[in-house]
Design brief:
By secondary structure, the chain is of the alpha/beta class. Helices cover 39% and strands 24% of the residues. It starts with a strand and ends with a helix.
Length: 353
C-alpha cells in the first residue's frame, strides 16, 4: 500500500492577517472542543496506513501546547523517518515550547517571518517586530537543524535593499529552507506592488539566494542540500494525502475531498457522527495527469518530453519560458515569473499531441 501524507488544519489565530486567504477564527474558547472533534474525524476517516509526512498548518498551530500536538500525532502510524512540520509565528514560541514540540514528535518548523523590516511588518499588521523574529530564528537554530522561514515579496514600498537585508539575516543564521511568496491582495490592493515591480523583486531575491548556494527546487522555495520540504514535494508529485480540520482538502483514490470551511459547522457535523465534507470531486485519468504535469513543472524535477506537442513546445523554448534537459522539460526563471499566464499554452503542449 502506498504511503500517505497528512495535513492538519488548526483554524485559530489571535488576529487575522489582512493578506491571508487561509481559513481561521479568533474564537480560542472553541479550541478544546475543536481538538476533541478533530480526533473524532481522524478516527472516522484514517485507515491506519503508513504516513510519510504530517503537516500542521493554519491558522496558527503554535497556539496549541506541545501535549496537544502529541495527542494528535499518536493517532497516526508514522514511518520511522516521517517528516513532521509545524507552522509557527515568532511571537508564539520560546525555547521551552520548541523543546516540548520536539519531544512531541515535531522535527521541522516553518516560521512566518514575512519580513525583517519593521515598516513592512506594520503595513502587514503583523504582531511581531524584527527583534522578536530574530529571537525566534535563533531559538530554532539552537534547538533544531530543520526549519524554514517565510518571506513576502512585493509589499508596498519594499525595495531591493530591504528584501536583501531580510534574506541576508536569514542566511546569517544558516536557515536551511526559505520560502518566498509574492504578495497577492484581492481586497487591499494598495498594500502590494504592481506585477512588474514584484517580478523584479522576485528575480533579485532568486539570484541572491542562488548565489548563496540555495537550490531553487520549486517556484516559491529554496533549500540547502537535503532540506527540501518532503511534504510539499509530495503534493507537487501527486502523492495521496489526508486533510483533517475545517477547510482541509484530501486527495485519496482519485477523489478530492473538501472539508467545511466553518469551525462551528465542522463541530456540529462530527457531533452528529457525520463527515464534515463539503464537496467530493472525482478526478478522471486525464485530469490527474494534467494536474501532475502542472505541479511538477513548478519544481526542478522536470517532466518527460515524450508525448508532448513538440511544435507548441518549441515556441515556448524560443521565447525562453521553457528549457530542455535530458529529455525533460523545465520552466526557466522567466517562465516561473509568468507561470499562471503560461497555463493555457502549457495545456496545448500536454493535450494537443
Amino acid at each position: 500500500m502506498a504511503l500517505k501524507m497528512v495535513y492538519i488544519h488548526i483554524p485559530f489565530c489571535l488576529s487575522k492577517c489582512i493578506y491571508c486567504d487561509f481559513y481561521s477564527e479568533t474564537e480560542l474558547n472553541l479550541k478544546k472542543e475543536f481538538l476533541k472533534y478533530l480526533k473524532e474525524e481522524i478516527d472516522l476517516r484514517y485507515k491506519k496506513e503508513k504516513v510519510s509526512s504530517v503537516y500542521f498548518g493554519g491558522g496558527t498551530p503554535s497556539l496549541l501546547q506541545p501535549e496537544e500536538i502529541s495527542e494528535i500525532l499518536v493517532k497516526f502510524d508514522k514511518e520511522n523517518d516521517c517528516e513532521i512540520t509545524m507552522e509557527c509565528n515568532p511571537e508564539d514560541i520560546n525555547k521551552e515550547k520548541i523543546k516540548g514540540y520536539l519531544k512531541a514528535g515535531v522535527n521541522r518548523f516553518s516560521l512566518g517571518v514575512q519580513s525583517l523590516n519593521n515598516f513592512e511588518l506594520k503595513l502587514l499588521k503583523r504582531r511581531h517586530n524584527r527583534e522578536k523574529a530574530l529571537e525566534a530564528i535563533k531559538i530554532l537554530k539552537d534547538e533544531t537543524k530543520n526549519f524554514s522561514c517565510d518571506l513576502i515579496v512585493g509589499i508596498k514600498g519594499q525595495i531591493k535593499d530591504t528584501l536583501i537585508d531580510s534574506l541576508s539575516e536569514l542566511i546569517s543564521y544558516n536557515t536551511p529552507h526559505i520560502s518566498l511568496y509574492p504578495l497577492e491582495m484581492k481586497k487591499y490592493k494598495y498594500l502590494a506592488e504592481g506585477g512588474d515591480r514584484k517580478a523584479d523583486l522576485l528575480e533579485t531575491s532568486w539570484k541572491f539566494l542562488k548565489k548563496s548556494k540555495y537550490i531553487h527546487y520549486e517556484i516559491s522555495n529554496f533549500a540547502k542540500n537535503g532540506f527540501n520540504c518532503r511534504h510539499n514535494l509530495g503534493y507537487w508529485t501527486g502523492l495521496e494525502y489526508y486533510g483533517f480540520g475545517p477547510s482541509a482538502h484530501s486527495f485519496l483514490e482519485n477523489k478530492r475531498f473538501r472539508n467545511i470551511k466553518n469551525l462551528k459547522k465542522y463541530i456540529i457535523y462530527l457531533k452528529e457522527g457525520k463527515l464534515p465534507v463539503f464537496k467530493i470531486e472525482i478526478l478522471d485519468k486525464d485530469k490527474i495527469e494534467w494536474e501532475k504535469f502542472i505541479l511538477i513543472l513548478r519544481t526542478n524535477i522536470g517532466y518527460p518530453l515524450e508525448g508532448l506537442n513538440k511544435e507548441k513546445l518549441e515556441e515556448l523554448i524560443k521565447e525562453k519560458f521553457i528549457k530542455l534537459n535530458n529529455n525533460k522539460i523545465f520552466l526557466t526563471e522567466k517562465g516561473m515569473l509568468v507561470f499562471n499566464s503560461l497555463i493555457i499554452q502549457l495545456y496545448f503542449i500536454k493535450n494537443k499531441k
